[in-house]
Specification:
This protein is α/β, with parallel strands linked by helices. It has helices spanning about 30-40, 70-75, 80-95, 115-120, 130-135, 160-170, 185-190, 265-280, 320-340, and strands at about 5-10, 20-25, 45-50, 65-70, 105, 125-130, 145-150, 155, 175-180, 195, 210-220, 230-235, 240-245, 250-255, 285-300, 305-310, 310-315, 340-345, 345-350. It folds into two domains: about 5-65 and about 160-210 and about 300-350, Rossmann fold (3-Layer(aba) Sandwich), CATH 3.40.50; about 105-150 and about 210-300, D-Amino Acid Oxidase, Chain A, domain 2 (2-Layer Sandwich). It is globular and about 65 Å long.
């Protein structure tokens, strides 16, 4: 269970949720999938709704990097992201034991050494590697970089694989999924059932402060480079990452732009592709498989929030950290429903 000095027991009024045996979760992306699965494993009858089909190609999760990197994220995120993210690592291991935890590698060219030093000062739980250490860890990068930071306890998942896996585990746990189903969480709550709203930007009817933050990504393929873990390339203007996937695929990601435009710009494409070439020149001969944009749901402070009302719980604002935070946020929601526990850094009762 996620423990925190910020955790308290809810007052009688704020935990006034009807003891219903049925949970409706709206939104089958990574946040909703983990909420539904966690409630099902806790013994509740669960129905998961989504307006998309089983492929979930319209979901933000479809364009995500899937990095489970709480210590790396500390460079730019608040401490609560690392705290919750670390707890999520154990939950990923428990739910999907095959999740790769090969660590994260952070590199920079010599001219950007100051960026590497800044990153090292802002983060913890890393090892410094010299050129020989980099080559031992990733033979494909031999001679490419003089030094790097290695975060050995971090992992990554392939979103388009693990989301169907989570859906499958939900049905095996007794839950029901209804794709191609548009529904209003408030209407579902009128029946007395507990509703967990995980619609992301679709929840603007309830949370007008939500905004979309554009994240562009490119999928490329080449058999000429083999990597075992995500590689982050530090640069003063475009710090980006390269994530290995199955079948010689690599994801280049991701920009973070205050826009809700759903097209990939020429500038972003050039920067993403340049980042790959910086990591290894063989990527110049790779083939582009796909370009895409996901709009990450963000609140004004860029922090996640679980908002609790009678029979209605909203989980939103996961921003750039959906796959990292979703498991632990689901655990917090279940803990509240079962025992009235509140994490004051994340949860808000109204």
């Amino acid at each position: 269970m996620l423990q925190s000095s910020a955790q308290t027991r809810a007052t009688e009024n704020s935990s006034n949720i009807n003891p219903t045996p049925h949970i409706s979760v709206v939104g089958a992306g990574i946040a909703g999938a983990w909420q539904a699965l966690s409630f099902a494993k806790a013994g509740y009858a669960v129905t998961l709704f989504d307006r998309d089909d089983e492929a979930m190609t319209q979901a933000t999760s479809h364009f995500a990097g899937g990095m489970l990197a709480p210590w790396c994220e500390r460079e730019a995120a608040e401490p609560v992201i690392m705290r919750i993210g670390i707890r999520s690592l154990d939950l990923w291991r428990e739910a999907l034991p095959d999740t790769p935890f090969n660590g994260s590698l952070v590199v920079a060219h010599s001219r950007d050494r100051s960026e590497l030093e800044r990153f090292a000062k802002m983060t913890t739980e890393h090892q410094r590697l010299d050129a020989e250490g980099i080559a031992a860890l990733e033979p494909a990068l031999e001679g490419r970089f003089r030094e790097a930071l290695f975060f050995p306890d971090e992992g990554h998942v392939e979103p388009r694989r693990v989301l169907p896996d989570l859906h499958d585990k939900l049905t095996k746990a007794g839950g029901t999924i209804r794709f191609k189903t548009e529904c209003n969480p408030r209407d579902l709550a009128k029946d007395g059932n507990l509703v967990v709203d995980c619609r992301g930007l679709g929840a603007r009817d309830q949370e007008p402060n939500l905004r979309g933050v554009k994240g562009e990504m490119i999928l490329i393929t080449t058999p000429d480079v083999q990597l075992a873990r995500p590689v982050r390339v530090l640069h003063p203007r475009w710090p980006l990452y390269l994530i290995p996937r199955e079948n010689n695929l690599f994801m280049l990601g991701a920009t973070s732009i205050e826009s809700e435009d759903k097209s990939v710009s020429v500038r972003s494409a050039l920067e993403l592709l340049t980042a790959a070439y910086v990591v290894h020149p063989a990527f110049a001969e790779a083939r582009i498989v796909e370009m895409g944009v996901g709009l990450r749901p963000a609140l004004p402070d860029n922090l996640p929030r679980i908002t609790i009302e009678k029979n209605h719980i909203s989980v939103n604002g996961l921003y750039r950290h959906g796959f990292l935070l979703a498991p632990a946020l689901a655990e917090l929601t279940v803990n509240f429903v079962q025992r009235g526990l509140i994490d004051n850094e994340v949860m808000q009762c109204s």
